[in-house]
Structures are given as structure tokens and as C-alpha cells.
Amino acid sequence: MTASGSPTQGAQEASQEKAQAGSKPRVRDRLVEAASDLFYQQGINCVGIDAIVCEAGTNKMSLYRNFASKDELVVQYLKEREKETFARWEEVTAAHPDDPRAQLVALFEHIVEIGHEKAHCGCPSANAAVELRGTEHPALEVIYAGREKVRGYVSDRLRAAGARDPETLTDGLMLLLEGALMSRLTFREKQWPANSMVANMKALLDAELGPAAAD
Amino acid sequence: MTASGSPTQGAQEASQEKAQAGSKPRVRDRLVEAASDLFYQQGINCVGIDAIVCEAGTNKMSLYRNFASKDELVVQYLKEREKETFARWEEVTAAHPDDPRAQLVALFEHIVEIGHEKAHCGCPSANAAVELRGTEHPALEVIYAGREKVRGYVSDRLRAAGARDPETLTDGLMLLLEGALMSRLTFREKQWPANSMVANMKALLDAELGPAAAD
DNA sequence: GTAGGATGTTACTGACCGGTAACACCCCTC
DNA sequence: GAGGGGTGTTACCGGTCAGTAACATCCTAC
For residue B142, what pLDDT is reported? Predict the structure, then answer.
């Protein structure tokens, strides 16, 4: 198991530093990365332990020494993806300090942009929610918490921008966001409706905040 | 279901019921119905042939006499769901003849309503698209065609209502729709953002068509 | 150089998967 | 009453799945 208070933690961190300086990262990180790629591209239920282990260039025993089960690896996969996503969002919004409306527009533009990348397969959390529906998988809590965080991220900026009814507008933007990511899988790329997402988003913003100074 | 008695008994009883009702006692229909329930609730990849066969009160051989493979059963499942959905939509819009705007509002209200039903698990097609991504499953074509049909359904009504830019607005409504269905799985029910979908939809309609005569 | 932790190797379990073969039955039609 | 089509029963196939045991090897800190 991955006991958090293991007496060897100090040694582990030390070797990790060395490993990062060298070529190969620790097995645990390689496993999460391999799982992340495969789970995202093919789906959690379609990817077996053997495939992950092979992709990570290791073996099953090393996986089960680092993770109690496949479920735990799935949880880690989603947490990692979420962390990366918010890091990217912070970069995007940092370009528009003290302008919450511009931050949101930039964010939505960014999402449309990455939606056009070749390997894009929608939202990892949403896909996982679909695959794990009807179960009591521990990853579901991670997904719910992640969506609440996203909602807060949007809601805070709408309030700061002076929305009259920020809750309703937040819901609207959440629907656009969720729809944009999912429709990459339900539509052919040329018909992807998110190509018009920013226009529709601005229509909602204008109705609530008044037209922007400059778009 | 299989509460008491052998599977054989159950199958015979079901056949007799269907025969008495007048429709054909086809195993095929029972299989599609059972597959529809299980695929929708638990997911295509989580439901095995044995479970479907058991739920339908029949056996594997009868399944493979009616369908070439599980894939073909999946295709049939999605086609059936789509047919049922459009039938319900026709009922909903029929209440507002010659008022395309009111038809769309009623449609969206209807979708929010059924989203609150206990057994609701999002959109069958979207869920399937997630589960089958990265494959060449024949059901993907069914999904794409279905989405195009929905888009046409919305687009026709927006044009009839006199939208200035019907394509962009159609995309916006498609995103709301897709987002509403998916977010039933990514949010806890109390935080479901589609509870504000109709308000946001009307904001988009008002911006394009002008305020409605009466809402 | 040695001890100990991290990693690799092989082989295995028991369950489940989609799909098939061979045969038996039942009921409707002619 | 003789078919024949639709259906049920049983047993099986090869493959994959998540997870484990026992043992071998490597690397690094001391």
C-alpha cells in the first residue's frame, strides 16, 4: 500500500530528485503518466493493467506495490489531470489581471483551441463519470469536487465582473463548457458546435453585464 | 424477472404475454429492451452478453441467432433510443403549432424535466460515444447521424423564428443541450446546472430574436 | 562493501468475456 | 401427422481481466 507516513519517505524523495536529474523518472510517476495517456485515449474500462504496465515500461508487481488497486490508479489519474488543467488555466487568466470578464473569455477561447488538437478526446472527468456511472467508484467524488471547483472559478469571476444574477449565468457557462467538451465526441470535428461557443458566451455576458469595453 | 422458477419458465411466460397482447413474441424485441435498460444504466462495456440474455429471459444462442455480434446489438440499442426520443419530442412540440420559439422552449423544459427522473443517466448516445471513442465501432456513425438530426431539428425552428444568425445560435443551443445531459453525471443532482438552462436559453433567444411575446 | 529498499521476472489463480457447436424441444402450418 | 422455424439447454473455446506469490536483481545510502 502507499502508506503516507512511510519511514522511507525521505529516502524516496531524495532518489526522486536524482531520478529527475537523470533520464528515468520513478516507476510510480511513469505509471500515472502511462495510465493517464491510455485511460484518456481509450477509456478506463478498455485499458487493462497489462497495457499500462507495458506502456510504462515496467511490470504488474511494481504497479501493485505503488497502488492498492486499479481504482486507486484511476483516482490518481483524475487528480493529476485536474491539477494540470488548473495550472494551464492560471496561465491563461494571468494574461488579463484585474479583468475577470476578459479572463473568462480567454479561458473559453483556450478550451476551443485545445479542442482542436489531434489527440483531444473531451474531458477526462466527464468521460470517467460516464464510464463509472452506476458504480460506487472512489473517483466519482474526485469528479464532483472538481466540477465544484470549476464552478467556483467561473462564479468568482462573474461576481467580480458585477453580474446581476451570477448563479444563473455561471450555470449557463458551465453548460456551454460541459457541452463543448462532450460534443467533441458526439459530433464530427467539422460540425463541432463549440466553434461558436465564444460568440454564444459573449451573448450571455452582454445580456448580464452589458457589452464589453472592447472585444 | 428471475424471482422464482427457471429461466425457461420465465421465457415461456413472457412469450405468452406478448402473444396475448397481439404483438409477435419475438425474442429479438425482448433482447433489445433488456440491452437498452442495462446498457443505459451501467454502460456498454460493463454489461456482458450473459446479463442481457438473463434479463431478457432467454439464452445466448437466441441472441446470436438475431444479432451477428454484441456490436450489432449496441447499434440497435442506439437506434431504438433515438426513435423513442424523437417520438417524445414530436409530442412536446405538437403542443405549440406554428410557434417555433415556443416549441424550442418547451423542448428544453422537457429535457430538464426528464433529467430529474430517478433513472436518468444522461444521453445514451453521448455515453456511448465516450465508451466507444478511439474504436471503429459501427455505432459511432449512428451517433453522429443522430446529432446531425437534432441539430437540424433545432436549426429549422430557429430559422422559422427569424433568427439573424441561426447557425451560431443553433450551436449555442446544442452546447446547452449537450452540457445539460452530460452534467447530470458530472454534478451532484442539487448542483445540476441545467436547472438554469431555460433561463440561459431564453437569454440567447432574446438576444437574437428579441424578447418573446409572452413567456 | 554491505544492507535494504526499489524494481524486475515468472508463473499462477479464479473469474469473466464474446462467441460457437450439437442437440432437444415446442408450436404453428400445411 | 409431418414438417420446419423459432427457441431452449449444455458444454465448450480461446482470450482477457485484476490481482498475488516467490524469487531474482539492481541501485543507492551509509
Answer: 98
Residue B8 has pLDDT above 70, yes or no: no
User: Count of CB contacts below 8 A, A vs B?
Assistant: 183
| Contact assignment for A172 to B203 by CB distance below 8 Å | yes
Q: In this complex, do B151 and A179 lie within 8 Å of one another by their Cβ atoms?
A: no
pLDDT at A75 over 70: yes
Asked whether A134 and A166 are in contact (CB, 8 A), the reply is no
CB atoms within 10 A of CB B139: 23
- What Rg value do the Cα atoms of chain B yield, rounded? 20
Exposed e or buried b per residue across B3-22, where buried means at least 16 C-beta atoms within 10 angstroms of its C-beta: eeeeeeebbeebbeebeeee
Distance (Å, rounded) from C-alpha B3 to C-alpha A111? 50
Residue in this structure with the C-alpha cell 473568462, named with its chain if needed:
A104
Judging contacts by C-beta atoms under 8 Å, the chain A residues touching residue B153 are: none
Determine if strand C comes within 7 Å of the CB of A57. yes
The helix or strand, by DSSP H or E, that contains position A82, with its residue range, turns out to be: helix A70-94
* Cα B142 off chain centre by: 12
Per-residue pLDDT tens for B17-76?
A: 333 333 346 899 999 999 999 999 999 999 999 999 999 999 999 999 999 999 999 999
End-to-end CA distance of chain B: 46
The whole-model pTM stands at: 0.90
B128 φ, ψ to 5°?
-65, -40
The whole-angstrom distance between residue B25's C-alpha and the CA centroid of its chain comes to 25
For A166-194, the pLDDT digits (tens) are 999 999 999 999 999 999 999 999 999 99
Taking CA atoms, B189 is separated from A132, B14, B112, B123, B183, in Å, by 16, 36, 12, 15, 9
